[in-house]
Amino acid sequence: MKLLYAVIGGIAATAAMTAFLYLLSFVTHRVMKVIRILGTMLTNRTQPDGSLSMATSTKVYGTVAHYLVGIIFALFYIALWHSEVGLINASWGLLFGLAHGLMAMFIWYLFFLVHPRPPLISLRTYLITLIFAHIVYGVVLTYTVYLLATPDYPFWS
User: Where exactly are the transmembrane stretches of this chain (predicted)?
Assistant: First the structure.
């Protein structure tokens, strides 16, 4: 059952986080489209001018990788809760999301450092935005698992 919760919750939370980043990209006109960034870097298809690849296969690689990582991290969240680290409520979802975001920021920074041809984006803005995106992930994942598990205490405590 926990694996099913991780899959459903991971997909929902990753979708919410991705929508948050795409909305910010639309509003700010900055490159924060995580699926295209990830796909471009995984396939090493950074364009000569430093822009992201528009190839369909790049988007497929980025999408599959992004959602797979989202499900894996959902497993970690559930393992923490199962080990009695934190509760399945909004406060802990926010805290786990913050910790997850800081870790993601560090991993992405390293990825940009070691990549032979990273895309030209405003890296500082992107990395800071990732923290907030992962807070969205943490809260949505927690709420989704809460709804699936239906515990006997209020979520918004």
Answer: 6-27, 60-80, 92-114, 126-149
pLDDT digit string (tens) for 32-78?
999 999 999 999 999 999 999 999 999 999 999 999 999 999 999 99
Q: Measure the CA–CA gap between 19 and 95, rounded to whole angstroms.
A: 20
DSSP 29: -
Q: How far is CA 62 from the centre of its chain?
A: 12
Q: What is the DSSP letter of 32?
A: -
Expressed in percent and rounded to 5, the helix, strand and coil fractions of the chain are 75, 0, 25
Chain centre distance of CA 26: 18
Contact between residue 127 and residue 108 where contact means Cβ atoms under 8 Å apart: yes
- Minimal CA–CA distance to 52: which of 63, 67, 38? 38
pLDDT value at residue 150: 76
pTM of this prediction exceeds 0.85: yes
